[in-house]
Design brief:
Helices cover about 30% and strands about 25% of the residues. It is of the alpha/beta class. Bound molecules: coenzyme A and adenosine monophosphate. Adenosine monophosphate binds next to strand 25 and strand 26.
Length: about 625
């Protein structure tokens, strides 16, 4: 355990949070200094840097141009799927962002208004996010892999004035047209935005229409003649963005991120967790639609004056398993960050690491992995193959930055396979039993964080304080419930074992059992259904659907057709990213006497574990009948 910089910082962050974060806040430029660091006058709601005014875009872009970084690369766009590379300097980024901000303003977007960004990994997506921040609008980026039902739920909750999109995304095997999905979503949603702005991509330009209830226009037309807009100061506590994430129900949760706490926390994390400073190059292989992309492709590197890499491709197949090594070598990346599943994909294709040959990785100092548990095999393989520290760190959309990590900038500590190391300063992590009592070291329990959460974490859910309290704060008083289970060892290292609820984590993508179930339930043959996440060597987890069909259905004659229609339905409604490949028709689903489906019990059966069967089960014989279906597959 640390006795040095980490221990001191961690202790101070808990005993003197105002002093600790007040000092960290000096790295951010404020137009008005905050009047308080932590406002704890209204628990369980806490606000950081109240009274402070700033602009996140100014801190991420304009400030660096003013301070002499105008000619430095702000981002390298590298797109093997289109065969394109481009570098955007900070000065160019400022110009592009100001123009899009002006175009948004002309379309009627005012401070506080929401703008949905549904875009692939193109520089315009980053520009769009920063342009919203510039004029005080609230962006809500929706992952391009989500299909109409998911998009519609987000449109209805966020109520955007404008939707910014592109004509298509590009997957290795196909071009994904966005307009059918957008129009499908807008037809379902009750909210109608004023305008839909579409970046035309040559791989599949869209036919825009003039007979829709919303105005459709191209990106170029939206920008034509627009006046560049300056940065507008906002309150530190105003929302910068809303990012929807999956809970157990089909209704996504709108995670709110504020300006002040976010800027301070991300800036602090870059130097202290990731050891990245101004002028360094950082490569995060994720997607701007996920929190990892928001924080570590876009905001943290730019707030730091570093260079970020925007990579539109996959770890394998674009064109091969050397893609990440090429990118790291070509741009001289000091560190890279991705999900363990991406490394498992590379390992599967090139276990010997032969494809490293010819790529100069001498500047790569660290690999960071997060998004799902880093299994010891993948950790060992990556460490041996790359010869650099491979750092697991644990966090969630809700927190926006790591809860537990090995802090490479503050004080590198020994790495233990299977553990994301220690709680990051600011996070008072506790492992609790069912009664809310701390468990001894080595004992598994629910991982909770004592309030207040540090800056940058969610202050609430979008326009739903009640759901925020009910979802996260109601189980253990004074604590935020992470939804993950795990333990702390004798050295204070945390081990995160997985979700204790029904949230799925498929290839580092967080998905809701509820939305997949809603898609299955919409099929006319389905009487009831359940989705469980089963362990998978490659994707960590994959969903499996179990459906009970209506009595009138002839399973013998129509079973195969129904099963394949159900798989297709989930692709069409939720998105291919759900990776649902297997749906079984079963005679019944196990339930408690009050009708709650026993997903956890089924999941344990499918994972080959001894299932915990609650005493309240309605009919235990259902489990016997399910056993052949749920037997672990080779
Ligand atoms: N738009 C449209 N479709 C998308 C998409 C997008 N942005 N992203 C993924 N999909 C599709 C894929 O094409 C695939 O479709 P298919 O079933 O027709 O083949 C499906 O969704 C599943 O995608 P994915 O889970 O990405 O699996 P994969 O087998 O194509 O690739 C990995 C596997 C490991 C390469 C990939 O999952 C990966 O890079 N994961 C890293 C995850 C990550 O960055 N997480 C963020 C947290 S760090
Ligand atoms: P997301 O909100 O998409 O970032 O997903 C958050 C969830 O992913 C967490 O609650 C965990 O279940 C899981 N997760 C993320 N990082 C890790 C990690 N390093 N180790 C274990 N689980 C992780």
């Amino acid at each position: 355990m640390s006795t040095g910089a980490y221990a001191a910082a961690f202790q101070r962050s808990l005993s003197d949070p105002e002093g600790f974060w007040g000092e960290a806040a000096r790295a951010v430029e404020w137009s008005t200094e905050p009047t308080s660091v932590l406002d704890d006058s209204n628990p369980p709601f806490y606000r950081w840097f109240r009274g402070g005014r700033l602009n996140t875009c100014f801190n991420a872009v304009d400030r660096h141009v003013r301070d002499g970084r105008g000619d430095q690369a702000a981002l390298h766009y590298d797109s093997p799927v289109t065969g394109t590379k481009a570098t955007v300097t900070y000065a160019e980024l400022q110009e592009r962002v100001a123009l899009v901000a002006g175009a948004l303003r002309r379309l009627g977007v005012a401070p506080g208004d929401r703008v949905i960004v549904y875009m692939p990994m193109v520089p315009e997506a980053v520009v769009a996010m920063l342009a919203c921040a510039r004029i005080g609008a609230v962006h809500s980026v929706v992952f391009g892999g989500f299909a109409p039902a998911e998009l519609a739920a987000r449109i209805d909750d966020a109520q955007p004035v404008v939707v910014l999109s592109a004509s298509c995304g590009i997957e290795p095997t196909r071009v994904v047209d966005y307009l059918p999905m957008l129009r499908g979503a807008l037809e379902r949603s009750s909210h109608v935005p004023d305008a839909l702005v579409v970046l035309q991509r040559e791989q599949s330009p869209a036919d825009l229409r003039d007979d829709t209830p919303w105005r459709e226009l191209t990106w170029d037309d939206a920008l034509e003649g627009a006046e560049p807009a300056d940065c507008v100061d906002v309150e530190a506590t105003d929302p910068l963005y809303v990012l929807y994430t999956s809970g157990t129900t089909g209704r996504p949760k709108g995670i709110v991120r504020d300006h002040g706490g976010h800027a301070v926390a991300l800036r602090w994390s870059m130097e202290n967790v990731f050891d990245i400073g101004p002028g360094d190059t950082f490569f995060t292989a994720s997607d701007v639609g996920w929190v990892v992309g928001h924080s570590y492709i876009v905001y943290a590197p730019l707030l730091t004056g570093a260079t970020t890499v925007l990579y539109e491709g996959k770890p394998v197949g674009t064109p091969d398993a050397s893609a990440f090594w090429r990118v790291c070598a070509e741009y001289g990346c000091k560190a890279m960050f991705t999900a363990p599943t991406a490394y498992r994909a590379i390992k599967r294709e090139d276990a010997a690491g032969a494809l490293l040959a010819g790529h100069d990785l001498s500047r790569l100092e660290t690999v960071f992995l997060a998004g799902e548990r880093l299994d010891p095999d993948t950790y060992e393989w990556a460490t041996t193959t790359l010869g650099v520290p491979v750092v697991d760190h644990w966090w969630q959309t809700e927190t926006g930055w790591p809860i537990a990590a090995n802090l490479r900038g503050l004080e590198p500590m020994p790495i233990k396979a299977g553990s994301p190391s220690v709680p990051v300063p600011g996070y008072d992590v506790r492992v609790l039993d069912e009664r809310g009592e701390p468990v001894p070291p080595g004992t598994e329990g629910a991982i909770a964080i004592r309030l207040p959460l540090p800056p940058g974490t969610l202050p609430t859910l979008w326009q739903d304080d009640e759901r925020y309290v009910a979802s996260y704060l109601s189980v253990y008083e004074g604590h935020y419930l992470t939804g993950d289970g795990g333990l702390v060892d004798e050295d204070g290292y945390l081990y995160v074992m997985g979700r204790t609820d029904d949230v799925l984590n498929v290839a580092g993508h967080r998905l809701s059992t509820g939305s997949i179930e809603a898609a299955l339930a919409g099929h006319p043959a389905v009487a009831e259904c359940a989705v469980i996440g089963v362990a998978d060597d490659f994707k960590g987890q994959v969903p499996r659907g179990l459906v009970v069909v209506k009595g009138s259905v002839d399973i013998e004659a129509d079973g195969d057709r129904i099963r394949s229609e159900l798989v297709q339905r989930v692709r069409d409604e939720v998105g291919a990213v759900a990776s649902l490949k297997q749906v079984d028709i079963v005679p019944a689903l196990p339930k408690t006497r009050s009708g709650k489906i026993l997903r956890k019990t089924m999941r344990e059966m499918a994972d080959g574990k001894t299932p915990a069967v609650p005493a309240t089960i309605e009919d235990p014989s259902v489990l016997d009948r399910l056993a052949p279906v749920l037997r672990p597959q080779a």
